[in-house]
Amino acid sequence: MTSYTKSQPIFIVGAHRSATSHIKKCVQGGFDIPANTEGYIWSNISALQEKIDQVINVTLLGENSGLGEGFSIKKFGYKKVIDLVLKSIDELHQREFETENWLDKTPGPDMIKILPILNNYFPNAKIIYCSRDCIQNLESRRIRFQNSNLAKPIDNYAQTILNWQKAKSQLKDNFIIIEQEKLASSPELYAEKISSYIGKQNNDKFLELLKGSTEKSKRPEKKSQTIFDSWTSTNQYHFFKNCFFFDNYNIEFNNLYVENTNEWTTYNWDDPEDKLTIHPNSEKKVKMIFPNIVNQLKEGSIKCTLGIKNKFREEKVGLRFILSMHYRNSSDTKKLTITDRFESVSAEFIYKPNEDCFLEVSCESLRKNIFYNGCELKIEKSKL
């Protein structure tokens, strides 16, 4: 059996459309380090890890744990199986590149999820994390893939950021961050930062490659505010649900955003004293997002009161409301129902000092007849 020495890989990671390809080409060309166009081998270990965890937690440690006595995974051990997989993939890279110093570029959440394991397995690994403004990143995906619906890209981006926030604390400071927005204005700074980190001598070729244009730089630059304001209400809604609490964007929000709106539903809220009209749709929920709710009403408790607008119609009513105050790490949700035209329902939320939050209100019709079932929403400071 030939002796095996672990590689000294360089992993380039980050969200899709965050200049991972550009950095890979620069490092590969500037220092003559071999690499394939994309990796997507290591990232698949995440799925294997999850499956093994499922087998261990459900089959071996569950109610009928005795069923697992003869399982190979229990005999061999979790770490040994993963290490053997890592060793096999590493040997494939060494045979292809004929060196222990190679480069892998794999963007996306699955790769970042497995980074702590890779960092522990490869003691001399280097990790370059590529970062980009949230709005600019998502707009780049919309343009690149010509898909106006950003629901899946937003979910993918959000999962990437969340995985990175969790993974970086386990990497023992063995990583550097490349911010795409600053790379164009400070290529000399990043040339020195990258070369020093990976243990290579900085050179003119590498610097010139870093200065080279990316796909982003070939397009006219749009401000993030302009981009966000041009998105559909559906894309804006998904942004609030997934990316609102990230710190890597710079835009000012309106006081109200409405998803699945109609001509009877209020779509702006400039005066906090105003009552808002919500009219149900026949199939989809009307959803309202209030990103500036705390700035509107200042500190304290918030009271939301709902009631049918036209109280003297004969048609029966049936409306279900879900009101949620979303905080960075939690949500407070209230469910309310109106089945009587003279009925009024309310919910109160306590604002947590020094914590970002936004209010979400959704309205759903419980009856097929939606006419004359419009309701009024009043949001005010509570006396609690």
Describe this structure in words.
This protein has 384 residues and is an alpha+beta fold. It folds into two domains: 10-218, Rossmann fold (3-Layer(aba) Sandwich); 253-381, Jelly Rolls (Sandwich). The protein has 13 helices and 13 strands. The strands form three sheets. It has a five-stranded antiparallel sheet with strand order 5-7-12-9-10, covered by helices on one side. A four-stranded parallel sheet has the order 2-1-3-4, sandwiched between helices. The chain is elongated and about 85 Å long.
Structural class: alpha+beta
Major pleated sheet: 5 strands, antiparallel
Task: Tell me, rounded to a whole number, the average pLDDT.
Answer: 89
Named at the architecture level, the CATH assignment of the largest domain is: 3-Layer(aba) Sandwich
- The CATH topology of the largest domain is what? Rossmann fold
Instruction: Kindly provide the radius of gyration, computed on alpha-carbon positions and rounded to a whole number of angstroms.
Output: 26 Å
* Share in helix: 25-40%
Q: Which range does the strand content fall in? A: 15-25%
Strand order of the largest sheet: 5-7-12-9-10
Number of separate domains? 2
The total of helices stands at 13
The CATH class designation of the largest domain is: Alpha Beta
What is the N-to-C succession of helices and strands? EHHHHEHEHHEHHHHHEEEHEEEEEE
Shape: elongated
> Cα distance, first to last residue?
74 Å
CATH homologous superfamily identity of the largest domain: P-loop containing nucleotide triphosphate hydrolases
Count of beta strands: 13
